[in-house]
Amino acid sequence: MKTIVWFGFVLGALSAAGEVILRKPxxxxxxxxxxxxxxxxxxxxxxxxxxxxxNGKTGFTVRDPKYKDNLKLxxxxxxxSGVTEEDAGKFICxxxxxxxxxxxxxxxxxxxxxxxxxLGSEAMLQCQVKGxxxxxxxxxxxxxxxxxxxxxxxxxxxxxxxxDEGNWQCTFSYEGGEYSESLEVKVQDPVPKTTAPSxxxxxxxxxxxxxxxxxxxxLGLSWWMWVAVGGGCLVVILLMVFVIVLCKRIxxxxxxxxxxxxxxxPLNPKTYCQCDRPAAAAKPQQGRRKEKPSxxxxxxxxx
Length: 303
Description:
Elements: H1 2-15, E1 19-23, E2 29-31, E3 41-46, E4 49-55, E5 61-63, E6 71-74, E7 77-80, E8 89-95, E9 98-112, E10 116-118, E11 123-130, E12 139-142, E13 154-157, E14 166-174, E15 177-188, H2 201-205, E16 217-218, E17 221-222, H3 223-263
Parallel strand pairs: 1-9, 10-15
Antiparallel strand pairs: 2-7, 3-4, 3-8, 4-5, 6-7, 8-9, 9-11, 11-13, 12-14, 14-15, 16-17
């Protein structure tokens, strides 16, 4: 049984050709396995590092934690979301003894200061390819007219011309295949500088006499400044009068309040002076004889 499986593995390795995938940073990459279904096991490796292994019978999955965020398994395919330059390399799928290699090349092309260049300015084009083997494999630029440039990842444009406008191709080879990534460059004419017209000699010589001022000046101040000062003083006086009236009203209300509160207190009973004076004699009745009043009894003198 072991011999049969090993023999099938060799045939699968020989028949499954490697696939090269080119991506820019931030894009999504999908690697396909040699089969769409599996029975025994499915395993994905990045070089010699295990990414994920699935047991076809039990469904038990083993995953490397460092590949948990941006790597997902879709059936038998492996998907990378948000490709970075560190993701470049070989991804190997083994399903039921069948093996397939996928190579991810991450290509970055850029123009400095930007892809829209000014005529006559300086610029630099850069092309970086991650995942090549060997890493120092030749990379060169091709001009928009198809002519090759120097075999270098960087192109220095000393003076940008209209002939530099178009699609530049960053070309390289990998395992016998030719690959390229394009960069569109636009060339714009410089904006003409507008200069202010120089004044004529006649206008320089002519003296400018401003019209005399019609404002009335009093003590070094114009009339509108005096109006502002007078208005400010009037406002201050009105505020002072208002404050005085308000204070008097408050005092008056306080005085009334105190009177009302004192008026609610109970009144003390009044005491009157009583004298020992005898009561007045009664009036004689008419028609009767007036009787002589009896003499008052003598009271002893107090020592």
